[in-house]
Each structure stands twice: as structure tokens, then as C-alpha cells.
């Protein structure tokens, strides 16, 4: 009955809606029972961290002492004083802008090309393209391929053809770190989104293409734009979400390949910066400010992309 | 050919619609409408039109006489349309089943057109909009890129099989000339001498992967089931939040998570790895999208039979979404198998395989061969799982899209 007195404060419509909702919720109790285990874990380990992260971002917190409120100091320091952060933003931005869209478009294109193959070959191709991202830490092999001495595969190749005189220190020379990292990240970019695309292509009804042919579609590119893209919108959005996630959360690859910290912070990304402050210096408040900014940017990116996708093929 | 029967509906002269069966013999057409108070029979002169006539074959011709002098032919074709046409020589023609091609040929003959033979393509092609040049270009491009994609993995396998002298040969080769498994056995020797034996790391990782994946599969499927099949207040909102949460990686939530874990007293226990893995949004997302494709009638039928929600979930829904299991499993295995757990696990004997890999790689140039061997061991498991479950996974991924 307490619910009733609470509800009576609302306007009639609201009241009716809520009453209806409440009754419905009561009737479907079992649904909440099913949802509960997941919802509790999800709330505790995904939603709560995000909320606490926003909260801590306004405090000074080092785990040992209780958090102390400092208002926007973390954000101001981050943007105005922390030069390493600006380097990391620049690096993340370069990585995200190159590997995000390029990886996304490449995985779409290759999924499309693979779709044209005969069935058995398609299965092989999907494995070959998807293997790098499913293999997880296999990228560490690049530390042998791009090794800094003459025994490194790339160095010896270049030495043999006389393109360079001395072996290049790929992961120590700031000039080469980023390009090499981008190559490695692109190598791994055929991920979940790619799988979703491959499956999406298979799901399109062939009669759509036949109808398109009758209506005057004459090349594979026209077909792509007018028939394929509009029917794949949900997968495109899913792929975009996946590619934003991986583009902004680059962390393991630079840490494992370029060292941590890397020479001149040349391979520092926002997430490695966050890691540094969070787990090496235990400045949780400061790290949380970085995390909060990252959340914001990712959510804005997703919004922008879903708006953009709404216009495709119309 | 004495009698042709076909179910359908027709309009009588009183412009009422009747459902029933049309029975055609060579001399007569009857339409029998089944009603509660017995069958009602209509002779042919009352029939003004036939609609939605269903028939088993491709198409059939029904010939009949109406009012003694006008001859009508009813073509019952696959398109469920009925054509009427006067045909003078109807009684000389046998009533035969016709295919669409026969029909087109006959019509062309009637119009006095020459019958065109349909050209056969020399190469059977799936798509009309493809040029051969373009196809070849695509194949070549795919082949080149596939080689580039596969090269590092092949190189890793090659390196792990190389003896020490070949690892530092100039110029280096991709494949070993004298392949050995020394690196793998050395690995066990090196790790056997260390404080924590290698097998311990392997067991830890297998344990985490197995328990984490299993728990995630059950918990996420339960939630996905009600989200997909029941409309209850808050359900849609919850799913929207999960969709957004797809973007938050473990690193970003890592710091507050650490604080939460330490408050719950779970630092340095496997719970710190397992519980967040149970709540991974991607598994719920995939499961829910796939379960939406399950026919609701299946669940309603079980309801009518008196099955409770849990029985429905366990005996009806779960066996029907097996392809989605594999997808959830591959994503979960992929993240758990590759976890280094460096932030929440401190004790060396609880660390994972990837952590061991990182330690070996930190060992520098002398450990190059062993590092390659560990890489091969670590990467082979998820890749093998993917190879064997690929077709099922793709089946699930087809429903993966995010609808606005």
C-alpha cells in the first residue's frame, strides 16, 4: 500500500501508467527472477564501476585515504598540465582514426568479397581472417618479426635488398613505433564485427538481388549501395560499436610490443595512461577522470555513427 | 484422369464467400463447401469466380462446360490465380499437369510468336551483377590479403619448431629446415624449475576459462530468455543499457572494479575474474538476438501443456539455441583464455598462462624459441574451437545486428 500513497503524488496519467506497469511487473515476477542473477552481476561489475568512476573523477583518491572532493581539478590538470596525457590522446586519436574506420571498412569489404566465394573456400577464408583476433596474444609474435636486430624478419628482408644499411629498432625508435603498431592493430581488426558482416551477407535473400537486377542495378557497386547496405544496417551498427570499442581501448598491444612505458611515450594511449595512474601510481581519482572522458567520447562516437548509418542507402 | 480435387475458396452468385473443395471431372465441375449443417454443393453455373485455389502440383488445367454451349478452361496455376479462356478444342486435349515453361510455350504459340530458347550461361554464376574481371580481381586481392593475415601465425608456428641455430640465422626463414619440438620440451623444463610449474598456469587458465564460460552461458541465457520472449516493464530499458555497455572494455571499468573487488574482499581470488566474466554484455546480447528468432508458439504451447518457466527455459529454449551457445562460448573463451589477470591476482600460483607467456617473453632473446612455443599453445585453443564451431557461430551472428 505504500506504493499507492507514493503514486498518488503523480498526475493521473502517470499514475495509471505506473499502476499498470506495476501490476504487469507483479504478474511477470518470474521474469525478474530470471533476470536477477545477470542483472545483479551486471550492475555490480559494469554499471556501478561507471557510476563510481564518475564519482571518483571529482575526488582525490589513492585507495589508502578516503576520497577527498576536489571538484574539477582532475579534469583541469588532465587537460592543462599533463603533457603525457595530451601525447596519449594524440596517439589514441591517430590509432582510432586510422584503425577504426579503416578496420571497419576493410572488415566490411573483405566480408563482402568472402561472401562471393564458394562455400568451402568461404569457411577457410573466414578462419584465416578471423584467426588473428581470436588468437588473442598471438600479436606478440610481431616482436620477433619486427625485432630490432638483423635477425628480425623485416630488418633482414630490408637489409638483403639493400634498402637500409643498419637494422631499424622498430619498437624503440619513436618514429617507427606508431606505424608498426597500427599495422599490428589493423592485422587484428577483423574481429566480431567482421563475423557479424559475414553472417549478415549470408542472410540477404537472393531474390532481392534478382529484383534489383530487373529494376536496373547493373554493377556490384550499385548493388552494394542500393541493396546490400540498407539490408545490413543492424549489423553495420553492431560492427561500428565493436570497432569503436577496439579502437579506443588499445592497450595490450602497445604495452606488450613497445614496452611500458615506451620510448618518449611514443606508444602511450589513453588506456595505458589510465593504467599507469590507476595501477602503478594508485591515483584512482585522476585515472577515473580519464576513464570518464573516454566513456563520453565513445558514447558520442556511437551516436554520431548511428546517425550517419541512418542515411546510408536512402 | 478422372477427377481433380483442389481446396480453395470461391464466390457464389449471392456474392458470399465459401471455403471448400473443387472437384473437377471431365464432364462436370462441382464445388463442395463444408458447413456445420452438412455439405453444400454448387453446380458450375453458379460459380462466377475462383480464388486462392491451392493445388499440389506446379499447375493444373481444369476444363469444364458451363450452360451446355460455352466452353471454359480454368487454369489452376502455382500462382493461385485462375484464368478463364475459351478453348474450342478442349475435348480433344488430354488434361495434363503443366509446368510454367510449358505454359509460356503454349501462350507463345497462341500469339504466333517464335519460341525463344533460353540461353544457358557458360559459367554458372550466383549473381547477375558480376563481371569476370572484377571477380578475378577480388580473388587475387583476397588471396594476397589472406596470405598477409596468415603470415604472422604461420611464422609463429614456424619459429616454435626451429632449433636454436635456425632462430638466429641470417637471413631468417619462415619454416624450419630441421623442425624439432625442443622448444616445447624446453618450455616444460624451464617452467618446471621455476617457483610455479608451467602446468599450474595451464590448469589455472583452463579452470578460469571453463568455469567462467559455463557460468556466463547459463546466467546470460536466463536473462536473454526473458528479455527476448517476454514483454515486461524495464526489460527494454535494461537491454538498451546492455547494448551501450558493449563499448566498455575491461580496462576502463578496471579501476573502479578494483575498488569494488577489494571492498568485497575478492582481490587475489578467482571470483575477481569470474564474476565480471559472468556479466559480460556480449554474451547476453548475442543470446537475446538469437532467441528472438525462436517461434513464440513453441513457448506458448509449452505453457498450455502446463510447463513452468524454468522447465520451458531448460527443456525447450536451451536445446533450441545450441548454435548460440557456441557463439557465447567462443567470445567468453576468447576473453578468459587470454586474460593475464595482472591487476586482480597477486599470488604467483594463481596466475594465468598469458602471464607466464609475458614472463617468458620478458626473458629476452635467449627465450625466443620458447616464447614462440607458448604463443602457439595459447593461440591454438581459441582458433581450434573457432574452426570446429564456425558454421554454428555464423548462424548466430546473422541475428547480431543492433536495431535502432
Search tags:
heterodimer, A: 314 residues, mainly alpha, MetI-like fold, 2 domains, 16 helices, 2 strands, 72% helix, B: alpha+beta, 3 domains, 8 strands, flat
Describe this structure in words.
The complex is a heterodimer of chains A (314) and B (404). Chain A folds into two domains: 55 residues, no CATH class; 237 residues, MetI-like (MetI-like fold). Chain A has a two-stranded antiparallel ribbon with strand order 1-2. Helices cover 72% and strands 1% of the residues of chain A. The termini of chain A are far apart. Chain A is mainly α. Chain B is α+β, with helices and mostly antiparallel strands and 404 residues long. Chain B has three domains: 109 residues, no CATH class; 53 residues; 217 residues, MetI-like fold. The radius of gyration of chain B is 35 Å and the shape is flat. Helix content of chain B is 51%, strand content 14%. In chain B, a hairpin with a 3-residue loop joins strand 6 and strand 7. In chain B, 36% of the residues are buried. Chain B contains 14 helices and eight strands. In chain B, the strands form two sheets. A five-stranded antiparallel β-sheet of chain B has the order 4-3-2-1-5, with no helix packed on it. Chain B has a three-stranded antiparallel β-sheet with strand order 6-7-8, with no helix packed on it. Chains A and B meet through helix 2, helix 3, helix 5, helix 6 and helix 7 of A and helix 2, helix 5, helix 6, helix 7 and helix 8 of B.
Amino acid at each position: 500500500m505504500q506504493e499507492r500513497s507514493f503514486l498518488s503524488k503523480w498526475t493521473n496519467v502517470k499514475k495509471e501508467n505506473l499502476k499498470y506497469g506495476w501490476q504487469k511487473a507483479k504478474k511477470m515476477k518470474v521474469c525478474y527472477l530470471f533476470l536477477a542473477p545477470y542483472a545483479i552481476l551486471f550492475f555490480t561489475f559494469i554499471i556501478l564501476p561507471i557510476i563510481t568512476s564518475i564519482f571518483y573523477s571529482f575526488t582525490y583518491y589513492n585507495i589508502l585515504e578516503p576520497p577527498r572532493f576536489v571538484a574539477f581539478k582532475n579534469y583541469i590538470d588532465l587537460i592543462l598540465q599533463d603533457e603525457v596525457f595530451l601525447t596519449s590522446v594524440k596517439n589514441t586519436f591517430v590509432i582510432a582514426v586510422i584503425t577504426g574506420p579503416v578496420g571497419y571498412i576493410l572488415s566490411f569489404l573483405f566480408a563482402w568479397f568472402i561472401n562471393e566465394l564458394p562455400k568451402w573456400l568461404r569457411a577457410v577464408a573466414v578462419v584465416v581472417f578471423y584467426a588473428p583476433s581470436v588468437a588473442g596474444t598471438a600479436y606478440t609474435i610481431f616482436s620477433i618479426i619486427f625485432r630490432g636486430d638483423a635477425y628480425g624478419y623485416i630488418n633482414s628482408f630490408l637489409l638483403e635488398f639493400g634498402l637500409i644499411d643498419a637494422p631499424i629498432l622498430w619498437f624503440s625508435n619513436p618514429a617507427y613505433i606508431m606505424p608498426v603498431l597500427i599495422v599490428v592493430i589493423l592485422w587484428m581488426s577483423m574481429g566480431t564485427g567482421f563475423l557479424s558482416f559475414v553472417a549478415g551477407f549470408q542472410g540477404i535473400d537472393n531474390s532481392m538481388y534478382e529484383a534489383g537486377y530487373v529494376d536496373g542495378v547493373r554493377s556490384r557497386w550499385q548493388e552494394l549501395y542500393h541493396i546490400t547496405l540498407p539490408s545490413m544496417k543492424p549489423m553495420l551498427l553492431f560492427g561500428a560499436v565493436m570497432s569503436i570499442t577496439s579502437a579506443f581501448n588499445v592497450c595490450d598491444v602497445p604495452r606488450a610490443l613497445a614496452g611500458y612505458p615506451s620510448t618518449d611515450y611514443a606508444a602511450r594511449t589513453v588506456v595505458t595512461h589510465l593504467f599507469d595512474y590507476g595501477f602503478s601510481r594508485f591515483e584512482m581519482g585522476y585515472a577515473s577522470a580519464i576513464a570518464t572522458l573516454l566513456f563520453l567520447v565513445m558514447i558520442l562516437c556511437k551516436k554520431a555513427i548511428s546517425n550517419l548509418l541512418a542515411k546510408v542507402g536512402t | 484422369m478422372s477427377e481433380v480435387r483442389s481446396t480453395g475458396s470461391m464466390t457464389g452468385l449471392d456474392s458470399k464467400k465459401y471455403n471448400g473443395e473443387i472437384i473437377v471431372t471431365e464432364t462436370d465441375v462441382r464445388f463442395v463447401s463444408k458447413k456445420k449443417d452438412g455439405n453444400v454443393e454448387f453446380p458450375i453455373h453458379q460459380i462466377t469466380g475462383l480464388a486462392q485455389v491451392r493445388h499440389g502440383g506446379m499447375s493444373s488445367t481444369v476444363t469444364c462446360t458451363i450452360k451446355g454451349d460455352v466452353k471454359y478452361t480454368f487454369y489452376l496455376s502455382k500462382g493461385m490465380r485462375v484464368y478463364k479462356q475459351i478453348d474450342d478444342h478442349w475435348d480433344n486435349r488430354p488434361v495434363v499437369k503443366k509446368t510454367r515453361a510449358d505454359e509460356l510455350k503454349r501462350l507463345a504459340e497462341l500469339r504466333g510468336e517464335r519460341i525463344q530458347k533460353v540461353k544457358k550461361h557458360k559459367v554458372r554464376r550466383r549473381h547477375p551483377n558480376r563481371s569476370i574481371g572484377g571477380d578475378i580481381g577480388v580473388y587475387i586481392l583476397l588471396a594476397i590479403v589472406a596470405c598477409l593475415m596468415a603470415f604472422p601465425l604461420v611464422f609463429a608456428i614456424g619459429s616454435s619448431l626451429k632449433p636454436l641455430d635456425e632462430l638466429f640465422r641470417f637471413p631468417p626463414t619462415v619454416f624450419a629446415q630441421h623442425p624439432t619440438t625442443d622448444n616445447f620440451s624446453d618450455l616444460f623444463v624451464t617452467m618446471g624449475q621455476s617457483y610455479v610449474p608451467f602446468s599450474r598456469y595451464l590448469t589455472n587458465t583452463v579452470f578460469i576459462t571453463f568455469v567462467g564460460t559455463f557460468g556466463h552461458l547459463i546466467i546470460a541465457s536466463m536473462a536473454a530468455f526473458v528479455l527476448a520472449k517476454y514483454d515486461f516493464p524495464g526489460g527494454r530499458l535494461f537491454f538498451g543499457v546492455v547494448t551501450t555497455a558493449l563499448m566498455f572494455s575491461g580496462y576502463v571499468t578496471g579501476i573502479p572494479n578494483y575498488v569494488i573487488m577489494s571492498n568485497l574482499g575478492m582481490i587475489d581470488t578467482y571470483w575477481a575474474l569470474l564474476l565480471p566474466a559472468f556479466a559480460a554484455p556480449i554474451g547476453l546480447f548475442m543470446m537475446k538476438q538469437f532467441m528472438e528468432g525462436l517461434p513464440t508458439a513453441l513457448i506458448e504451447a509449452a505453457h498450455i501443456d502446463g510447463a513452468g518457466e524454468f522447465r520451458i527455459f531448460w527443456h525447450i529454449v536451451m536445446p533450441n539455441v545450441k548454435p548460440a551457445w557456441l557463439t557465447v562460448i567462443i567470445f567468453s573463451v576468447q576473453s578468459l583464455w587470454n586474460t593475464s589477470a595482472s591487476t586482480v591476482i597477486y599470488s604467483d600460483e594463481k596466475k594465468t598462462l598469458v602471464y607466464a607467456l609475458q614472463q617468458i617473453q620478458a626473458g629476452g632473446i635467449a627465450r625466443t624459441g620458447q616464447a614462440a612455443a607458448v604463443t602457439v599453445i595459447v593461440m591454438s585453443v581459441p582458433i581450434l574451437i573457432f574452426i570446429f564451431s564456425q558454421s554454428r557461430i555464423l548462424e548466430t551472428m546473422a541475428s547480431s545486428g543492433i536495431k535502432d
